[in-house]
Specification:
One of its GO terms (molecular function) is monooxygenase activity. This is Flavin-dependent monooxygenase. An FAD-requiring monooxygenase active on some tetracycline antibiotic derivatives, which leads to their inactivation. Hydroxylates carbon 11a of tetracycline and some analogs. The structure is a single chain. It is built from twelve helices and 17 strands. With about 375 residues, the protein is an alpha/beta fold. It folds into two domains: about 5-70 and about 95-165 and about 275-350, FAD/NAD(P)-binding domain (3-Layer(bba) Sandwich); about 170-275, D-Amino Acid Oxidase, Chain A, domain 2 (2-Layer Sandwich). The strands form four sheets. It has a seven-stranded mixed sheet. It has a five-stranded parallel sheet with strand order 7-2-1-11-17. The chain is globular and about 60 Å long. The chain starts with a strand and ends with a helix.
Amino acid sequence: MSRIAVVGGGPAGLAFARVLARHGRPVTVLERDRSPAARPPGGSLDLHAGLGQRALEKAGLLAEFRAAARPEGQAMRILDPGGAVLRDWRPGPDERANPEIDRGRLRDLLLGGLEDVRWGWEVAEVVPGGGGAVVRCADGREEAFDLVVGADGAWSRVRAAVSGAVPEYAGVTYVETSLDDVDARHPGLARLVGDGAVAVYGVNRGLVAQRGGGGHVKVYAQYRTPQGWPADVDPGDADALRAAVLDLLDGWAPPLLDLVRHGTAFVRRELHVLPVGHAWAHVPGVTLVGDAAHLMPPLGAGANLALLDGAELAEAIVGAGDLDGAVRAFEERMGARAGRWAARTAAGLERLVGADPARAVALFDEVQPS
C-alpha cells in the first residue's frame, strides 16, 4: 500500500487524513507545532453547505459538526461609521447555509481517530524523485513517501517542490485584537456584536467584530495601505498598535472605537495572496492543497476550499488504482475551482476595503442568503 504523508495539521491536511482513515488507508500527518495546544487556534469559521460541510460529510463528521456549530453565528449587522444600522440580517430557525464553528473545535473534530500525527516535525523541504518524495526536516530527520501533500499554508515549504510562486502583498493590512468574556465584562459591546458579526466600512478602511464561542470576540481593523504601515510602530507593541488603529478610525462612533480600546493582544497581519489561477506542471510524488495551492483574501472561502480540497483528494486516491493519475486529475479540478474563487475574493477585497463604502454594503446584499 502507498506511503502517504500530509504536511500541515490545518483544515486541509486533517480533512485529507480523516477521509483516508475513514476508508482504511494509512496516512502520516506531519505538523510543526509540538502539540495541539502549542498556539491559539484562531477565531471562528463559517462552513458553507456546498464546500466545508460537504467535506465534513465525506469525512463522516457532518453530524458532529452540526452538534458543535453555532447557526446563530450567521447573523450579520452592518453599521456606518457614525453607528447607524444599515443592514441587520439574522438567520431563520432552520438556516444552515453557513453556520459558525471555532477553529479549535473544528480541529479537534478532525484530529479524532487519526493514528499517526507527528507533532514537532518542522519540514524544511520536500525533494521529489523516482515517483515519490523525501521529506527533510529542520532538525535533520528525513523520510521517504510515495506521495507528499503540502497542506502547510501560505508560506508552504512544500510549494517549492512544484512551483516557484510566492505570495504577494494584497494591498490590505489587518490589525487583529480580541475581547474575552464579552457578555460579562462589556455587555454593551456584546449587544453591538450580537450573535454573529458586525461590520463597518469607511474609505479604504473597515472594522469587523465576530463572536466566537465562550464569550470570545475577534476584532479586525482593516485598511488599504502600502506595505509596512504603520512604519514607526513596533508590531509587538500592543499599545502603539491600538493607538495607530484608533487614529485610523478617528471620528467613528465611540462604541465602535471601544471595540479597539478594550482589545488585548494586538497583532498586525499583512494580507498576501498567490496569483489568481496559480497552477503548476504536475510533479509525481508531490501536490498541494488549501492555502499552499491557492492563497486568497480571507473572505469566507479559504478554509472551506481547504477542507474540500483535502477531502476530494483523499477520495480520488481511494477510488483509483493509479495514484499519480488520480493526483494529476485532482489538480486540474482543484485549479479550475480555486481560480474562480480567487478571482471572486480578489474583487471582493477591492470593494470591501476601497474608496466607496457604499460598494462594500452592496456586496453584502449580493452574498447574503435570501
